[in-house]
Amino acid sequence: MKFPTFGLNGRVALVTGSTKGIGYGIALALAGAGADLVIVSRNQADCDRVADEIRGMGRRAIGVATDVTQNDQVQKLVERTVAEYGRIDILVNNAGTAITKRAEDLTEADFERVVALDQRAVFFVAQAVGRQMIKQGGGRIINVASILGLVGERQVLPYCVAKGGVIQMTRALALEWAKYNISVNALCPGYVITPMNEADLKNEKIYNHLLRNIPMRRLGRIEDMAGAVVFMASDAASYMTGQCLVIDGGWTAQ
């Protein structure tokens, strides 16, 4: 019996929001497993910096500045990737944002800004890449959701709404696209130290509240998430689709 491995040699991975935080760690981990990369964020200089780093690891990489909330830019991103590599084997939908505000104070603009990036863009990027994967005979889509799509939290209502939608989107797409040999899964991180939440975590009250509620008594690290994505992108996860992989130090087990 031959068991599958986690190697990604020769595969092409596109990672949105991949110049910092969890997305950056995922991009480096995929490259470390042998994949060639497309680095995506809104800033071209940031994309080039990370692409240069990955080329230094011996892998091919390009950086493509893209606002993933704009469908015309998403289409150009897919076209550029296919022109460069000929295919897209792995999509990691990671770009996201959050607003911390009481529900009674949220504006329509607040709500729309979070949902546009954290939910709507996830679908339209998946759709554009999925069309290419259908043409080429398959691929892997990994949507970065959150445990706050599974449980509620105070003062981040639009984020909870968006991430809950991403989890359901993942399940629905998995059912539709299984016949095309496309697997669609979600990563649900718990509380992870990233540039996006760095300021909040400097608040001692918030930090201590989180530690008290995490059974492992520590916050997550970016590398905790990156390894899980390598698994979902690899042959070891070939029979896995429509699932949400929760990595949260035990938060949702309570």
From TrEMBL:
<dbReference type="GO" id="GO:0047936">
    <property type="term" value="F:glucose 1-dehydrogenase [NAD(P)+] activity"/>
</dbReference>
<dbReference type="InterPro" id="IPR020904">
    <property type="entry name" value="Sc_DH/Rdtase_CS"/>
</dbReference>
<dbReference type="GO" id="GO:0008206">
    <property type="term" value="P:bile acid metabolic process"/>
</dbReference>
<dbReference type="InterPro" id="IPR057326">
    <property type="entry name" value="KR_dom"/>
</dbReference>
<dbReference type="Pfam" id="PF13561">
    <property type="entry name" value="adh_short_C2"/>
</dbReference>
<protein>
    <submittedName>
        <fullName>Glucose 1-dehydrogenase</fullName>
        <ecNumber>1.1.1.47</ecNumber>
    </submittedName>
</protein>
<dbReference type="InterPro" id="IPR002347">
    <property type="entry name" value="SDR_fam"/>
</dbReference>
<dbReference type="InterPro" id="IPR036291">
    <property type="entry name" value="NAD(P)-bd_dom_sf"/>
</dbReference>
<keyword id="KW-0560">Oxidoreductase</keyword>
<feature type="domain" description="Ketoreductase">
    <location>
        <begin position="11"/>
        <end position="150"/>
    </location>
</feature>
<comment type="similarity">
    <text>Belongs to the short-chain dehydrogenases/reductases (SDR) family.</text>
</comment>
